[in-house]
Amino acid sequence: MPRFNYLRDPDEIERQSFVQIRQITDLSRFDAEQQQVAMRLVHTSGDPNIVHDLHFSVGAVAAGLTALAKGTDILCDIEMVSHGISKRYLHSPVLCFLNAPSVIDRARLARETRTMAAMSEWPAHLAGSVVAIGNAPTALFRLLDLLDEGAPRPALIIGMPVGFINAAESKQALWDIALTEFQVPCITLLGRRGGSSLAAATLNALARMANGIQF
Fold first, then answer.
1. Which strand (E) or helix (H) includes residue 163?
2. Which end of the chain has the lower number of beta carbons within 10 A, N or C?
3. How far apart are CA 102 and CA 121, in angstroms?
4. How do residues 157-202 score in pLDDT, each as one tens digit?
5. How many angstroms separate the CA atoms of 102 and 161, rounded?
6. pTM reported for the whole predicted model
């Protein structure tokens, strides 16, 4: 007999987790589909209070679901976001250019972050895409620059970079202008909090919904 008695079934662990999340999290300001994203972020972070920073622009979830149903490209700022995405629920390619040799050389020559340098590869894939930025505020700012310069519009931006320099500012800029100036809906966590796992969790919540899976 095992010394420790604990729940082992992964499906039951997830089911019971979401039952508890509904009990302890104030989801009242979200609609049913937004709640699926909010609960996934609580599940990933272990923090019910994270929903206070979570914001959806009008039509954001619907735009993401439509794009995923079409098998659109998914663009990630770093490999950790890409690796955190559950590919089994997707028909879409997940792209990250951070470690491409040309990007590494370009960043060195331009004295900019690799995430910024990698953005030069994005315009060819942006149209109708789903963007998931979970680490680098510079990537989110550069994306806004690209859109301001006339780059193709993605279907949805998931903007959740984390940190103390530029993170809150980049997400506030996204929230302030993405829909009004660029007609691109977004999902973001305002403030300093964010991270690769949360950006991936948001995408995963959308992918599960696109496959008819809800809690």
1. none
2. N
3. 10
4. 999 999 999 999 999 999 999 999 999 999 999 999 999 999 999 9
5. 24
6. 0.94
Determine the Cα–Cα distance for residues 153 and 140; give it in Å rounded to an integer.
14
Evaluate whether 52 touches 189 at the Cβ level (below 8 Å): no
- Triad 155, 36, 44: Cα angle to 5°: 100
Helix (H, G, I), strand (E, B) or coil at 132: strand
Q: Which tokens hold the place of 37? A: 């994203």
Torsion of the alpha carbons at 129, 90, 193 and 140, rounded to the nearest 10: -20
Contact 172, 139 (CB under 8 A): no
Give the pLDDT confidence of 11-35 residue by residue, as tens digits.
898 999 999 999 999 999 999 999 9
* Known active-site residue 83: no
- Which residue in the list 43, 52, 91, 125 is annotated as catalytic? 43
Contact between 168 and 195 (Cβ < 8 Å): no
